[in-house]
Amino acid sequence: MTRKIGEFSLISGRWTTEQTQLALTIVAIFGGIALGFIIRTQEPSEKTVHLIGFPGEIFMNMLKMIILPLIMASLISGLSQLDAKQSGRMSAYAFAYYALTTSVAVLTGIALVLLIHPGDASAKIQQDRLAEQEQSVSAFDKFLDLIRNMFPDNIVQASFQQTQTDYQTTIISQADNSTKESLNVTEKKVDGMNVLGFIVFCIVFGIVIGQVGEKAKVLADFFTALDLVMTRIVVIVMWYSPVGIASLIAAKILGIANLADTARMLGVYMLTVIAGLTIHLFLTVPLIYFAVSRKNPYKFMKGLLQAALTALGTASSAATLPITFRVLELNNKVDPRITKFVLPVGATINMDGTALYEAVASVFIAQINGIELSFGQVATVSLTATLASIGAASIPSAGLVTMLIVLTAVGLPTSDISLIITVDWLLDRLRTCVNVLGDGFGCGCVHELCSKDLDLNRGSEIPTIIVNGELELECKQATTGSNKSIY
Ligand code: ASP
Predict the structure, then answer these.
(1) What number of CA atoms fall less than 13 Å from residue 444's CA on the CB side?
(2) In the beta sheet, which residues pair with residue 186?
(3) pTM of the predicted model, to two decimals?
(4) Could you give the residue ranges of the DSSP H alpha helices within 82-216?
(5) Where is the secretion signal located (predicted)?
(6) If both were cysteines, with which of 42, 364, 381, 382 could 119 make a disulfide (CB 3.0 to 4.6 Å apart)?
(7) 463 within some domain
(8) Centre of ligand 1 from the C-alpha of residue 427, in Å
(9) At 198, which CATH number?
(10) In-domain check, residue 131
(11) How many domains does the chain have?
């Protein structure tokens, strides 16, 4: 028995699977917000808050569980179908898009924060902030970490640990009985999947399979089959997503300590970030897409709605990845060979929302400390914010962590991050949404730019069907826009 999905049935008047899932997700978002605010009035115990967030915790686990095999299978199966020239051109377009959108995002953020000037030195005094130890991180060391993580020494370990520069101060006693502090810089392994290392490994693996050809076909088939199975698992998980998203949002709202106070003190700062994200999402990126495709970018954006809502719920572009794949291929008819490469890479290194956010937040911290940044310092913020967004993991609040790089680079107090943590629950969700949609538009742009090269117009054979456990080939006719997928 097979079931067709992906086509709106105006004729039958029935809702398709995606429309039902989308409607449920929208209800979940509003339901989660309402539930959070209603239960908040009852002053729930910590245990109740924990229980409300439990289905969301399980949802995040489900998504995280899928990420690794999905990235592996999609990258390897996608790249093994292309020749070196095709994949080279596709990656060149993708990286050009990432570079362009990230730099414009940073510039938008800088322009807005300088113009609006949300940072008022008195706001800091009013804040009852945590006294945190100053942390210092070298931007150069972080850059080396980025490269180091691209080439993990152990691919199995890379699935759960990554390398990070470690700073340790040791006290050395001197001959004259005085002591001297010495800073030891070493590397250590920290918990967290090294997605970048995995991506580099899978890209090389996929391209080489394509080059070896017939003899490596078994490997190509294996990863194509794995990709199909993972896609099907995503469909199952998506049925649970409304419950998970509602739970995540309700629990987050219950967890915020002092809603009104933070809104009052950091309101203008939040509005600056939101204005920047809005400009980037609704103006800059659509303009770039339109320039490349001459198609309606808002229609394209509508197709990505389900992914945007999931990003709002999870605050993680990696966790949203499975959904983004699905909506791009199903709703927006982007060629799977493109999504399979551009999406995982984009979700890891292309974070426009995070870059914009880090630029605004750093200048804001300078402003509340009464520091006027010179042109050179603003340029440093722009550069390091770009680097920090590339280095940020696609997980909740990762942008706050990598902001240490930006703050240290311009000599701003890193402990002031504690000021903006209070509103990160909202800004993180919004910037993740921009990150996810930016990656989606990136796939759309590369699809347009590569259409001739990848022979999209003449139809290509792309396996996307499983029928009774067996693989079948789907002939995708891009000219007519028909893309039948049977799950
Ligand atoms: N949560 C963001 C993401 O997953 C990263 C960030 O914290 O900016 O895309």
Answers:
(1) 32
(2) 166
(3) 0.79
(4) 84-116, 121-126, 139-150, 195-212
(5) none
(6) 364
(7) no
(8) 10
(9) 1.10.3860
(10) no
(11) 1
